[in-house]
Amino acid sequence: MAAPSPQAPTLTPVLVGPTGVGKTAVAVALAALTPMTVISADARQVYRGLDIGTAKPDPETLARVPHCGLDLVDPGERYSAGRFARDAAAWMAAVRAAHRQPVVVGGTGLYIRALAEGLFREPPFDPDQRAQLRQWSESLEGADLARWAGRLDPQFLGGGRQRAARAVEVALLTGHALSWWQREAREGATLSPWYIQLTVPRELLHRRLAARVDQMLAAGLVGEVQRQLDAGIAADAPGLDGIGYREVVAMLNGQLSESALRDSILVSTRRYAKRQDTWFRNQLREAQAWTIDATERPEILAGTIFERWAAMTTHDAPRTTHDS
Prior knowledge:
The protein has two domains: about 10-120 and about 185-324, P-loop containing nucleotide triphosphate hydrolases (Rossmann fold, 3-Layer(aba) Sandwich), CATH 3.40.50; about 125-185, Histone, subunit A (Orthogonal Bundle). Helix content is about 50%, strand content about 10%. The protein contains 13 helices and six strands. It has helices spanning about 25-30, 60-65, 80-95, 110-115, 125-140, 140-150, 160-175, 180-185, 200-220, 220-230, 245-250, 260-285, 300-315; strands at about 10-15, 35-40, 65-70, 100-105, 190-200, 290-295. Strands 3-2-4-1-5-6 form a six-stranded parallel β-sheet, with helices on both faces. Helix 2 (about 60-65) links the parallel strand 2 and strand 3. Helix 3 packs across helix 4.
């Protein structure tokens, strides 16, 4: 990719879409055309030791294409969208200083929005009240916690216990919903995004997701979870709250049969992919995202993206490694 023009010094490609749509494969193909570093915007891939269920790139891919945003915290720690936005801004600055092109890739919409639009500066919370509230929220079932989040913030879009607890905490401790703070008291955004949204027909996506679940189980997803539990990570730790992990935890705790594990993960994954697709479609409508059919081979998609990027950022004719 050509360097951004002086008129848009922070214009950054942002590759989005639901899980299983092929974002990583397209990013790897793009990296064959230009020196590029991936900024991973995936809330699950930040956890160390959780590789199979988060579909992290394999070592061979990481050796070919540098990634930032992987393996940042232990599964028992929390990692927020605000922290991601701050970290990612530093990563992108370092990538550009090394004369490489940062490309944001991921399916965690809140992370991407935090980076592109900014998040509010959190007011100081009373530590005793916060501790009491956290103890109360941890006593609730996930569905009940999500209902509380929806009552306190009608714009709460879901996304797991951590996000629901965050929405409840902010609303009760500040008197305003999290969405209100995000509208009224945002920090400055750190990039100007060029959104590229990958989509495929639902039937194809479902086949890809089924193949992915089968691959994860064959690669040892159950053993990956068991190792974390054996190491002392709590069953309800933030890192084990993701799709795939929580189903395995339920099976290991006797709450789900082994024969039902695969289908349970697949159903949850399909629902999550649908929520992602809906979120990006609604959130990016005003951003005029470029939506492209990802049924083509990654190399073809990468070439198409590269040519449009070059046309947007330089007056020279685009040149790829195929132009020799």
